[in-house]
Amino acid sequence: MALGRALRSTVFVALLTVAALGMTITAADAQEPIQPNQHFIGLVNGSNAAPVVVYTVCPGPAVGQTGPVAGGQTLSVARVASGHGYTGPFSQVYAWFNQDSGGPRPNMVKFTEYGVSQPIPSAVRVPCGGTGQMTFSPCPYLAPCAAGFIPDVVKVEFVDIAV
Fold first, then answer.
1. How far is residue 150's CA from residue 136's CA, in Å, rounded to a whole number?
2. What are 43-65's pLDDT values in tens digits?
3. SS in 3 state form for 137-151?
4. Which of 15, 47, 57, 136 could anchor a disulfide with 152, C-beta 3.0 to 4.6 Å?
5. Which residue in 17, 39, 18 sits closest to 27, CA to CA?
6. Is residue 22 very low, low, confident or very high in pLDDT (cuts 50, 70, 90)?
7. What's the DSSP call for residue 18?
8. What is the rounded distance in angstroms from the CA atom of residue 135 to the CA atom of residue 141?
């Protein structure tokens, strides 16, 4: 009797855990269109846990230098129930690495669907090492946009793999 009760309790707890994880993880299906008035998070290489590592390729002494990101790295957007970014009146999210506003305009990636990964553009130049931020915003970089949106910022750490 006691073994049967223990087994039922274990199975019940396991099912609750799977259900809870399933509800948390499947916030939005892949290729679900981004719509106005939705909360979202930006993902760099599938994560938003600070800091997310972004690999760079900077041969030679790279202190204080910028260089390209290593290939095979991605960006994506996931819909969440609350918090983080908010689309406001917009139906897209743009992503870019934050940089000195006096420098060239950053390379942006545009998302119109949740769960669709896109590569970090090969033309992007970032610090060869150190920390930075990736902004995910319904409004393009430095564009005059209507109020009501909230960007999501993901902290990143640049790690040079060419040293």
1. 9
2. 999 999 999 999 999 987 767 88
3. ECCCCCCCCCCCCEC
4. 136
5. 39
6. very low
7. H
8. 9
- Amino acid 12: pLDDT: 37
pLDDT, tens digit, 9 for 90 and up, residues 135-161: 999 999 988 898 899 999 999 999 999
The pTM for the full model equals: 0.80
Half-sphere exposure of residue 67, counting CA atoms within 13 Å on the CB side? 24
- The per-residue pLDDT for range 73-106, each reduced to its tens digit, is 999 999 999 989 999 999 999 999 997 656 678 8
**Cα pseudo-dihedral 117, 142, 70, 43, rounded to 10:** -40
Where along the chain do its domains lie? 29-160
What are the distances in angstroms from CA 101 to CA 58, 87, 98? 23, 23, 8
Which of the following CATH numbers is that of domain 29-160: 2.60.40, 3.30.420, 1.10.600, 3.40.50? Answer: 2.60.40
d(CA 40, CA 45): 16
